[in-house]
Write a structure and sequence with these properties.
412 residues, alpha+beta, eight-stranded mixed sheet, five-stranded mixed sheet, 16 helices, 39% helix, binds histidyl-adenosine monophosphate
C-alpha cells in the first residue's frame, strides 16, 4: 500500500466543512476590503524565488522543492507574494491600475522537517496590496488580518509589529548587529553562527534561549531608523490605536524573507506550540522593482490555513446529510429506481441510494448514517401501485405517496 509523503496531509470529507467555511468567510471579508482574487500557478521558475526571497533565506537555502526539466529549473511555490508580483508585472496589471489589491488561497510547498503545524504542503490565505507606501495601507492590512481571524471565530491571538526601516536602515541595523555580536559569537547556537555571516537579522528571532539572552542584552532599538521611516512607523501605530487593534511592538521581530522593509508583523497563538505563527506579513517596497517593474511600494500577509484549523476548535463533522434516501427492494425496483433518483436530482433534490442494498434493515441503517430527512421505499408493491412509501425520519410517520405527487410532498 502506498502512503502519503511525509509532511503532507489528506484533507478528508469530515474536515471539508472547515475549509469551505474559511474560504467563504475569507471571500466575504476580502470583498468588504475590495481585494480581488488572483490564482497564480503552483509551478514557477525557481529563479523567481531565489531573486525575491533572498539566497540566504532559509526557504531558499533548505526548503525549496525544485524540479529539473531538461534545461529548466522550476520550483513548487513556497509562498505567494513573489508569484503575485510576477503576475502583476507580466500581465501588465501595473499599467491598468497602479494601485491594486489581491487575495489568494492555495497550497504552498516547503521541504521542512515536519512537526505539529509545520508541513511540506500547506495552504495560504494571503493578501497583497501593491502601489502605495501610505501607513494607512499598513493599518488596513493588519486590520484585514484581524477581521479575518474574528470572522473565523478565532480568539486568543496576539499581533506583534516592528519596523525594519527602508533598505538603507535595514543595512544599518544589520551592520550594527554584526558589530555588537562579534564579541558574543560563542554564546550563539550553531544555526545562528551560520546566520551571523549569511543572514544576521535572523539571529534576532531565534527561538533558542541562549540566543534570546544574547539578543536581549544588545538592546536593539529604533536608533537605526531614518526620520521618514520613524515617522511612518509612528503613523502605523497611531492608526492601529485609532482602530482599537491591540498589538505589541517587538523590536526583535524580523521576518525570514529578504524582501521585507519597514513594517513587519506576525500574529501568533499560544495554542500552536513551537510553531506559533498563525500568519505573518509586511512591506516589500523594493520587490516590484527587483522583479523588473518600476519602484512600487507594497505590503501583504498570509495565514497558514492548517494552523487556523489547529486553533479553531473545529470538530470533524459527520457525513454530509442528504434530503432523500432511496431504498430499492428487488431487481425491477432497482432498475426503475435509477430513473427516480435521476428525476429527483434534476429537480435539485439531494438524494442518495445504496446500490449494494441487500436488506431493508441494512438500507435503513445507511439512511440513518446519511442523516436523510426522508426515506423512499420502492419495491414490488409500490411498482404495481405506481407509488412509493415515504418515511419522514424526524416524525417516524410513513405513508404511500403517488409518484406524481412525490416532489410536492418532500418539498413542502
Ligand atoms: P511566512 O511567514 O513564510 O510568510 O508564511 C505565512 C504563514 O504560513 C506562517 O505564519 C504560517 O502560519 C504558515 N506556514 C509557513 N510555513 C508553514 C509550514 N511549513 N507548514 C504550515 N504552515 C506554514 C509568507 O509566506 C509571506 N509570503 C507572507 C506575506 C505576504 N508577506 C507579504 N505578503
Amino acid at each position: 500500500m502506498f502512503k502519503r509523503v511525509s509532511g503532507v496531509k489528506d484533507i478528508l470529507p469530515k474536515e471539508i466543512p472547515f475549509w469551505q467555511r474559511v474560504s467563504e468567510v475569507a471571500r466575504q471579508v476580502f470583498a468588504r476590503y475590495s481585494y480581488q482574487e488572483i490564482r497564480p500557478p503552483l509551478l514557477e521558475e525557481a529563479a523567481l524565488f531565489n531573486r525575491s526571497l533572498g539566497q540566504s533565506s532559509e526557504v531558499i537555502q533548505k526548503q525549496m522543492f525544485t524540479i529539473r526539466h531538461h534545461e529548466d529549473l522550476y520550483a513548487l511555490r513556497p509562498e505567494g507574494t513573489a508569484s503575485v508580483v510576477r503576475a502583476y508585472l507580466e500581465n501588465g496589471l501595473d499599467k491598468s491600475r497602479r494601485f491594486a489589491k489581491f487575495f489568494y488561497m492555495g497550497p504552498m510547498f516547503r521541504a521542512e522537517r515536519p512537526q505539529k503545524g509545520r508541513l511540506r504542503q500547506f495552504h495560504h490565505i494571503g493578501a497583497e496590496a501593491i502601489g502605495s507606501d501610505d501607513p494607512g495601507l499598513d493599518v488596513e492590512l493588519i486590520s484585514l488580518a484581524d477581521t479575518l481571524l474574528t470572522q473565523f471565530e478565532i480568539h486568543g491571538y496576539s499581533i506583534k509589529i516592528n519596523t525594519l526601516g527602508c533598505a538603507k536602515d535595514k543595512e544599518k541595523l544589520c551592520s550594527n548587529l554584526h558589530n555588537s555580536l562579534n564579541d558574543t559569537l560563542e554564546g550563539l547556537c550553531d544555526d545562528c553562527k551560520v546566520r551571523f555571516n549569511q543572514n544576521t537579522l535572523r539571529i534576532l528571532d531565534c527561538k533558542r534561549e541562549a540566543c534570546r539572552k544574547t539578543v536581549a542584552s544588545l538592546k536593539v532599538g529604533e536608533a537605526f531608523l531614518c526620520e521618514e521611516c520613524d515617522a511612518h512607523f509612528a503613523k502605523v501605530r497611531q492608526g492601529l490605536d485609532t482602530l482599537g487593534i491591540s498589538y505589541e511592538v517587538v523590536p526583535t521581530l524580523v521576518r525570514g524573507l529578504d524582501y521585507y522593509t519597514r513594517t513587519v508583523f506576525e500574529i501568533s497563538h499560544p495554542g500552536l506550540g513551537a510553531q506559533d505563527a498563525l500568519g505573518a506579513g509586511g512591506r516589500y517596497d523594493n520587490l516590484v522593482a527587483e522583479l523588473g517593474g518600476t519602484q512600487t511600494p507594497a505590503i501583504g500577509f498570509a495565514f497558514g490555513v492548517e494552523r487556523l484549523l489547529l486553533v479553531s476548535g473545529y470538530k470533524p463533522q459527520a457525513m454530509q446529510s442528504c434530503l432523500v434516501y432511496l431504498i430499492c427492494l428487488g431487481e425491477e425496483a432497482k432498475s426503475k429506481g435509477i430513473k427516480l433518483l435521476s428525476d429527483l436530482r434534476k429537480e435539485g433534490i439531494s438524494c442518495d441510494t445504496d446500490y449494494e442494498c441487500k436488506s431493508l434493515k441494512g438500507a435503513m441503517r445507511a439512511a440513518n448514517d446519511a442523516q436523510a430527512r426522508f426515506v423512499i421505499i420502492f419495491g414490488e408493491d409500490e411498482i404495481k401501485k405506481d407509488c412509493v412509501t415515504l418515511k419522514d425520519m424526524s416524525s417516524g410517520n410513513q405513508k404511500e405517496v403517488a409518484l406524481d405527487s412525490l416532489l410536492k410532498e418532500i418539498t413542502c
